[in-house]
Specification:
It is a single chain. Helix content is 29%, strand content 17%. It is an alpha/beta fold. The termini are far apart.
């Protein structure tokens, strides 16, 4: 099994719509110590430069620092432990399909890449985290040196636990228009893993949901992203979904995505 580098960190265009379920999977609640494994993938024709990888890490740390700050506002302790694979030498794959927010994106990336690290299954990786770190939760961030709509892999109870229990995100270096992704994109996708719902119009949310969210939560990170992540908030609905608060308003369920 290949060694994973550890270090302790305390600290859109819109993504593909996500079917998220609260309090399940490897990222059950946004609190405590969370192990984040970042994997850099590329094709043989389009590898990352070291500077590009450093920039992605900088954006990731801005995102995780922001999440820690927001958790603290809800009186929750949160810290992230970093692991990396492919930072010194990218993990090469034959093809990186461009995701276009259709809901039909490839979903087995985590299992596929963890196999390359020597793990028989994502669940074996999560058990490694539990035994070898002080973390009780784990997330895998996959950075692709391509353009596309980033998306997340939240676990739901009806999925094969052995294959899909470990949650994570597939993060394209650039949006489809060529703009490099924002830290808020990373935070948005990570929140999906902890159970957050999209609040903007997509094939699982109607325009009425987006319009209401704009009235109630105009700066909510699950409604929009921004170049400056500090413009954004985690408001009551998302805070309840990701476990930052137990306070639930009766109308929260109205925002539940279609088909949930």
């Amino acid at each position: 099994m290949k060694k994973i580098i550890l270090s302790l960190i305390s600290y859109f265009f819109f993504s593909s719509p996500i079917f998220a379920q609260k309090n399940v999977g490897s990222a059950a609640k946004l609190e405590g110590n969370v192990y984040v494994l970042s994997i850099f993938i590329a094709t043989s024709d389009d590898d990352w430069t070291k500077k590009e990888k450093e920039l992605m890490y900088e954006k990731q740390r801005i995102a995780t620092n922001w999440l820690v700050k927001k958790a603290k506002e809800y009186k929750k302790k949160l810290a992230f432990v970093e692991g990396t694979f492919g930072y010194d030498k990218s993990v090469f794959v034959e093809e990186i399909p461009q995701a276009n927010a259709t809901g039909n994106e490839r979903t087995d990336w985590i299992k596929f890449l963890l196999n390359k690290l020597g793990y028989k299954s994502p669940l074996q990786f999560h058990n490694w985290v539990l035994k070898n770190t002080k973390c009780t939760q784990s997330v895998v961030l996959i950075y692709a040196n391509q353009t596309g709509n980033s998306y997340a892999f939240p676990y739901t109870a009806n999925l094969d636990k052995e294959k899909y229990f470990v949650e994570g995100c597939f993060l394209y270096k650039k949006f489809t228009d060529g703009q490099i992704i924002y830290p808020s994109t990373i935070a948005h996708e990570m929140l999906h893993d902890f159970g957050a719902w999209d609040l903007y119009k997509n094939f699982m949310q109607g325009q009425d949901k987006e319009d209401k969210a704009k009235q109630l939560y105009p700066n909510e990170i699950m409604l929009r992203i921004a170049l400056n992540i500090n413009e954004l908030e985690i408001n009551g609905l998302t805070a309840w979904l990701v476990g930052l608060t137990e306070k639930k308003e009766k109308w929260y369920e109205w925002f539940k995505p279609d088909g949930y």
